[in-house]
Design brief:
heterotrimer, A: alpha+beta, 15 helices, 12% strand, globular, C: 218 residues, 3-stranded parallel β-sheet, two-stranded antiparallel sheet, disordered N terminus
Amino acid sequence: MTPDAPPSGAPAESLYGPRSYRVWGDDALAGQFLEVSMGPHHPSTHGVFRMDVVLDGETVVRLKPVFGYLHRNHEKLAEGMSWLGSMPYTDRLDYLCSMTNNWAYALAVEKLAGLGVPERAEYIRVIVGELTRLVNHICLAGFLLADLGALGTPLLYAFREREKILDVFEEISGARMMCNYMRFGGVRADLSPEVLQKIARIVDRFPAFLDEFERLVSGNEILLSRCQGVGVLPRDLAVNAGVTGPMLRASGVDYDLRKVDRYGIYDRFEFRVPLGEHGDVYDRYMLRILEMRESISILRQALAQMPEKGEILHPQAKLRNFRPKPGEAYGRIEGPKGELGFYLISDGGVCPYRYRVRPPSFINLTVLEDMCLGQKVADVIVIFGSVDIVLGEADR
Amino acid sequence: MNAERFAAQFPGVQWDAATSSWIVPHEILLDVANFLKTDPEFRMEMLSNVTGVDRLPAKVKTKGEDGKETEHERPGYLEVVYHFYSVSRKQGPLVLRCRTEGRETPILPSITPLFRSAEFQEREIFDLFGIVFSGHPDLRRILMWDEFEDFPMRKDYVEPDDYEWEPTPHDAVLVKARRRQVADSAPPRHDA
Amino acid sequence: MEQGRTGVALGAAMDDRLKSELQRAGIFVTSLEGIYNWSRRSSVWPLQFGLACCAIEMIATAAARYDLARFGAEVFRPTPRQADLMIVAGTVTKKMAPQVVRIYNQMPEPKYVIAMGACAISGGPFKQGYNVLKGIDRYLPVDVHIPGCPPRPEALLNALMFLQRKIDRQTLDASRPLRWYDPMDKAEFPVPSYGAHDLTPSSNRAFWKPEATPRNEG
């Protein structure tokens, strides 16, 4: 039975009506569909996300995401403020990884204004960017496992490690989460030798933590049986639907912007790009664990190669009254969640004419319905958790 | 090479050097996108970014053949910008722009049947800019609620007046504060 | 002891020195009010309800380092029917505001609201946005405001302690009855509906008044 044609008597528009629960059909049991509104207040929707799920028994026959519960008008606000004024707002897009958001925006503006970045600043960007990736991936693993029923322990472990990295961020930028650290043509503050030592210590200890974490959960029978073969995303669909980041690579597509675009100084580091074989939830989970190990390797190389002294802001970089020449640019980086892009149009004024964020969380959710169809309703949460979204970015 | 072949294939397509993009008439948008997707030399199988731009009517200066600057009215239009990337050939971006005729009833063909990634992004453009995409499977508002009537990302959008007192109004807020001051001048403080 | 106040205020009336002396002897004396408030303040169950960035800091507060459990508030309940405290952690958009009010209406009495972060207080950095509610206090009565964007976990702990002091001040005195013992007071607030341009109504004028514009400005 297809969900597209509801059984007789059910108005077609009822799918999007205000009621949360609705049973179609007159017969007592036969051919009944139940429409459930999951969210926006749901413990496992990672914020205020809503899914209109139509169920046949426990099987999902239709799933429509509903966005906008955190639509904060970032793009409209940015059109009314200076170029640099939008920088702290980018922190709040994907609020787990403010550093990479800053980086993507700075990269796009540098492309627009033709601004270079000093070498030491590039190294600092790589270091804080990869630390952010660690924060994001470990938090994702914690949240995903909490969704799977491992309430507490993995999440507590994840947040314990996150706190250590946030301490570093706080020391260099003054804020734990909303760092507002990058500037057009460099970064805002230099890393002192003590901070670098602290980072080196975190990097040295992180693999042991990952081993511990993996011993705790990766081979767990419940995790295996609930994740393997669940929410399979075929390779062609992933590319066609614009899925990026770990989601795309878990489906076996070798597309990492750090390798493809080689933005910044990523051509100087040796690292591998982990790829998945099955494209299921377990691949997405393991891929993030493997990516963290690669990030550690990048961090080690960056800390070793980093020049002792040097400028951190391009001499021609302007903080006040910054007006790029008219034109447009699209800058993108490999954010922890996928391709984070900024599309900017300048008309030569102090404010952007058009400011667009290409949000990986939002576009990765295009395939949510495809992954969930035919699965059980309990797996929807797991599949959704493995997509790794942050609503601040999806809704902006 | 590639660019020349592309231009020869589609004579209606114009290269816009200022923005490094191709301006595509909306009649052939789907053909162009299909060509880019399937042609072995392009293989642009990922449509990464789709977004709208609002251009209000403006006065533009153009230089005539005699070197004289002439000013004329340019009608307003809405524009959709597409960023294509090739995953297999690791190339990109290739930027297409498609313009509507006027801002009153803007209609463009939907690219979603070719590229699923446009599904939500076109809905977002419909929601915020009011461009109708013909052929979209499920064109509804996505970020704002269904009862909402305005198109907030348009440049001439007027938001509801819910100005609150602020200690240090500036710029646009100051304009609002002055407007409210005029509106408040008759009733006493704390009017309900 | 005063006439008509049977036993309720005995502990309060007893002098502190006598209390501590008795305590050393293993006798703990308190008032009914005291032990009632103490037990309520030590098991504030917050609603597991994150809206935006501040929710991450709320989770961090509940995690190992800051450990909200020290204050008896670690039991985050996903359902409003079991929660005492709503921490409005993040930006309330106009699309989300009806749901927030509805969830608040579903919470049992006594219930408290903490507005965590600049956005929940006033809209914060997103105040000028067309879809951003300029403060949850337009629709709900807020007990504690925490400034910050986002507030640090310590600030949330402080807000919780502040709320506990507020609970401590509540009295069982019959001459000053608590609001939620009044069966007629449902503490339910009208849920706004989606309008063509804005929420209708755009605020609950029963208890929220806009700040008037001072004359001498500009």
